[in-house]
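User: Predict the complex with coenzyme A.
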Amino acid sequence: MTENMSYEKVYERSITDPEGFWQEAAEDIKWNKRWRKVLDDTRKPFYQWFAGGELNTCYNAVDYQVESGRADQVAVIYDSPVTGTVQKITYRELLDKVANFAGVLKGKGIAKGDTVIIYMPMIPEAVVAMLACARLGAIHSVVFGGFAPHELAIRINDAKPKIAVSASCGIEGQKVIPYKPLLDKAIDLAEHKPSACIIFQRPQVEALLKPERDFDWIDEMSKATPAECVSVSATDPLYILYTSGTTGRPKGIVRDNGGHAVALKWSMKYLYDVKPGEVYWAASDVGWVVGHSYIVYAPLLTGCTTVLYEGKPVGTPDPGAFWRVISQHGVKALFTAPTAFRAIKKEDPDASYLKKYDISSLKYLFLAGERLDPDTYNWASAILQIPVIDHWWQTETGWGIAGNCMGLEPFPIKPGSPTKAVPGYNVKIVDFAGTELPAGEEGYVVIKLPLPPGTLPTLWNDDARFLEYVTQIPGYYVTGDGGYVDQDGYLFIMGRVDDVINVAGHRLSTGAMEEIVSGHKDVAECAVIGVDDQLKGQVPVGFVVLKAGVERNDQEITGELVEMVRSNIGAVACFKQCSVVKALPKTRSGKILRATMRKIANKQEYTVPSTIEDASVLDVVKTAAKEMGL
Ligand code: COA
Ligand code: AMP
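Assistant: Here is the predicted structure with coenzyme A placed in the model:
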């Protein structure tokens, strides 16, 4: 369809004839029943792609690959420097494992439409569990291992899983983190109780299993009868992935089966320029959207070999870790977050470790998850001498919104810009009233409806909250990012316009942290804001006002607050700095001026808002920020 065509032509067609465009892309997927309508818009703004169609995502990702001659090709390379393991799993072996684990789930009563929580480290069993759910038409919800029991409990209550799948531990660099006590605590905290837990025992830690509720993965696999693929509607949910919103209540992003498979397979060819049989590595975690789309589904749907890496860019064992994996496995395209490259650059600024490895297989580096700062872009380009592609997307869309399409005709790059919209996305810059802004003017980055296939059809059990994305500015999906388009049509994403922050490529809510901090008995009110960080992009910093009459030592209290955020949200929040202040700057109506605080803490220019109640409080923030070394 799109081969040998220019980006402009392909993009134009995707916008003027989305149904024709995506219908052709859908021919690349194996359907059990053809769709009735490519795009069903009868319930606008709830759009449905491939309505009436039926397929099975696991079939397309695994069985179909075996049937079409890839049985002996490696599907998954599990590379785990933290355990000293490299394990290669062929498509045939993957099929056996997935069908068998689907049999385990089926034996425990899981059927189409049921939900399953997966709380796993980066081991092959996590991928097997996800695909096994897809095989049965069950809906998985993977929760990132760095989240604490309180966060896991929130997700259990919302997704109401029949079963939880977990492992005895995760391994974070040198640290072994027992997962089972965290899962047990989360189930204790949650109102909803899964009826069974299936636990993969890793050799590093043996989890205690509760009789009657908990089952051993290996025991269950040895007794199971393999299960076949269940045909599901294109519009049935494949998974729920919770992501941070502006409050403590995460948003359950729903992904459908049909549009997802079509869009991801299209993206592998045209955005990433990766072909069947090639090795693709997304150095992320299965708990994030990048892991769902580009560790698991997209590479397998394409018949690639995917790398599942249980390690870090540095320290496992050194800053040459990425180069070692690329050379050992012949990786063609690497996808990670800019923060990973900042971490490598910090430890090995001259890239001396790179000289030890032959990484000539690597043709592209794709970066996403946070803004790619020009310094990191320049460094990565200089050391690798290959295209370094910044692309912008979010959990909600599930795949790239803007980026230089390597499978079409690429553009010259402008550092700081992910270039232009990916075909399917009609991206605009508008003001609050929805009026399109001229080139160079910063505003809200929105996408004209309908969104392309693969993007969120709604939020789990919460159509009303989904509508907030698409009704604030009628006719558009509001991304939550601010930015502008320059004279040459290049898009620049300047950061979130809400209280979502990005810490080491991990999306977190400062609102959720404020809810925890304000729960402390001595805290009257607080503000948590994101400040720039050289390594992690952003880190959260707290400002708290104590209740009148509290005489305790400030450091003791802030230490408790740091611990509360760590144990409630998780270490991944990186909430390490907090200061007690006399007051917070507010408007006369009592709204905390977080945007102004952010500017002060980031040493940016700011104007004193005309609505401020007491301008002298800004000096309080300035002093506190200075004392924290910001
Ligand atoms: N399970 C349990 N704990 C976890 C975890 C997991 N899956 N992932 C992270 N954590 C913990 C870490 O051990 C660390 O704990 P600590 O405060 O006790 O040291 C804390 O959460 C913060 O983790 P992280 O933000 O990853 O920081 P780090 O200093 O360990 O590593 C980087 C920094 C930049 C090397 C790392 O974040 C990285 O590789 N990021 C880039 C890639 C990526 O995963 N992006 C995601 C989306 S693409
Ligand atoms: P997540 O949902 O975790 O993928 O985070 C999505 C958010 O990360 C976006 O809304 C942006 O704020 C930010 N983001 C992701 N990719 C980029 C990028 N390439 N450039 C700038 N910001 C990005």
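Residues 500-627 form a domain with the GMP Synthetase; Chain A, domain 3 fold (CATH 3.30.300.30).
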